[in-house]
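Reagents: none. Just compute today. DUF2905 domain-containing protein.
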Amino acid sequence: MQRFLVALGALLIAVGLAWPWLGKLPWGRLPGDISIEREGFSFHFPLMTSLLVSLVLSLLLWWFWRK
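Predicted 3D structure written out:
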């Protein structure tokens, strides 16, 4: 558990430092993301972004627990 918390803390620090560059990536605006905008109503569902994040996290966790 200690190793996990240290790794999570390091990841949060790295993301915080890289945020100016990460904010320019098209997360939530990928092809396949659903966005409906009408007068007085907007709906955003980042389907492809969610799938991509899920795939990357699954691969990282698989690789981390394999060792």
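The mean pLDDT is 87.
Action item: order primers for follow-up constructs.
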